[in-house]
Amino acid sequence: SGVADRQPDRLKALVYFDAAVPDQSGEALLANAQPERIAQFEAQLTDGNFRISPDYFDVWTDDTSVKAKLKALCTTTPVGCFTQGVTLHNPRPKLPRHYMLAAKNDPSIFQKIYKKALGDSDFTTEELPVKHAGMCERPNLFAAPLMAYAATLSN
To answer: Does pTM top 0.90 for this prediction?
Structure first.
């Protein structure tokens, strides 16, 4: 969204997969999170720590080998990625938008965002039968709709 805000002429479309879609400047992901989730993040921010450890791997995938790989490869994330929204000067550039929902990731904050996209004429949408790490869990299933969507943009 930040790149689309600054360089919309360099993009053909925006694709979101189980992602936040900021509508206004400064909108942070945690602004819509459950209080319990916010408390979990805050508990990690002690003694000057400003990084959040990855967790909820059961939400990411059911595949035990993918889960093990994710646990081994994932690193901490600066808390600002969750608490500071992107700065937008042009929040809705005229670009096609496509939202892909990890339908097995339910309940999720992304379900609410997907429902909003369903009612937005700027979006096309689809649900994939995967969890949040769908691109790792089932890469071919994930790639096929991306390729199909990309083909609709060719001219």
So the answer is: no
